[in-house]
Amino acid sequence: MGWERGYVMRVLVIGSGYLGGAVAGRLRAGGVDAVVCSRRRPGAASAGGAPWRELDVRDGRACRELVAELAPEGVVVVHGPSDITWCEANPELAREAHAGGARNIADAVEGRHVVLISTDNVFDGTRASSGESDPVSPANAYGAAKLAAERTFLERGSALALRVSLVHGWDPDGLRPNFATTCVRALRDGRELDVPEDHWNTPVHVDDVSAWVVALMGARRTGVLHLGGPDRLSRLEWARRIADAQGLDAGLLRPVRRADSAYACRPENACLHSERAALLPELAGLAPEGVDVSARRLPQEG
Questions:
Q1: Which Gene3D superfamilies does the UniProt entry name for this protein (predicted)?
Q2: Alpha-carbon distance 28 to 9, whole Å?
Q3: How far is C-alpha 246 from the geometric centre of its chain's CA atoms?
Q4: Please, which of 222, 228, 238, 266 could form a disulfide with 202 given CB 3.0 to 4.6 Å?
Q5: So what's the pLDDT on residue 3?
Q6: Orientation angle between helical segments 60-70 and 101-109, nearest 10 degrees
Q7: How far is Cα 242 from Cα 259, in angstroms, rounded to an integer?
Q8: Which pLDDT does position 9 carry in this prediction?
Q9: pLDDT digits over 40-52, tens only?
């Protein structure tokens, strides 16, 4: 994979949310010296057990100083804000964090290998699913900000933009738990949950994303790559499968139209497929799992 050959000995993970912590944890499990940085101190679990350093990516001087001090061989960029609804209401702040932050990080890393976690929201959702060669057309302010960040990294150095579909897993302590966690907790509490019947996704488990990030960084892949799960299904169908796997009451799920829900600013088809992944040897054996397997892996309590 590359670690044994000494390609990357220290990795800086910029972002300490659910996915950033999972990436840091997998890097550390593989013997890599991973350091997490973010604006706010995360809980131990959120940092994946890695040491934490404070960093606001909007501060170019702080970015340069931290990279100079830590001297990482590689950088994973997975910072927020990732609340798409919030970004739509605050487009300038979203752009400052993602596009502006990308400029500051790119200046600081000076050609070091970067893996940027990007999004399916760089597409407008008019296709059933989007591959790497499909033209981009951001669906919302979040997608536009992430696309600008992609272009900054790809133009300035050795970088990979890994666009991921809806990331999920068990995250009960997160500031904004992902859909799978939200669904399970609502149904366990006996609460009704509004779920769009016309919002299509290819959900991918957080463990699969972190495994790909580590493998791709070890191989120093560059360019654009997509990672979506094997199931293309509506959010409502996904919620029903979660309920079935957990033995919960699917009757509490209330079908709604995407346009009338909290998902109104998301693309209708938030779905990704890859034209490249099967050609990359480091990804052999890392096929992402389906939603039924993931749903059965969710804890039965908690």
A1: NAD(P)-binding Rossmann-like Domain
A2: 10
A3: 25
A4: 228
A5: 47
A6: 30
A7: 23
A8: 75
A9: 887 765 667 889 9
* Dist. CA 107–CA 60, nearest whole Å: 8
CA distance 298 to 101: 34
CATH for 53: 3.40.50.720
Question: Quick one: tokens of 258?
Answer: 């995407």
Both tokens of 70, joined, read 């830590």
pTM for the whole structure: 0.94
Which segments in the chain show pLDDT lower than 50?
1-3, 6-8
> What pLDDT is recorded for position 157?
77
Q: Would you say residue 192 lies in a domain?
A: no
The residues that bridge with 159 in the sheet, in sequence order, are 114
User: For residue range 187-199, what is the model confidence (pLDDT) as tens digits?
Assistant: 999 999 999 999 9
Block residue for tokens 């939200």: 182
Give 139's contacts (C-beta < 8 A, 6+ positions apart): 121, 122, 123, 124, 125, 265, 266, 267
- Classify residue 254: in a domain, yes or no: no
Distance CA(65)–CA(175), nearest Å, equals 29
Residues 6+ apart with CB under 8 A from 65: none
In a domain, residue 209? The reply is yes
Query: What radius of gyration, in Å, describes the C-alpha atoms of the chain?
Result: 18
What is the rounded CA–CA span in Å between residue 217 and residue 108?
18
Contact of 24 with 51, CB cutoff 8 Å:
no
Instruction: Give residue 301's pLDDT.
Output: 62
The count of residues in the chain is 302
Domain of 132? 10-169+202-230+271-283
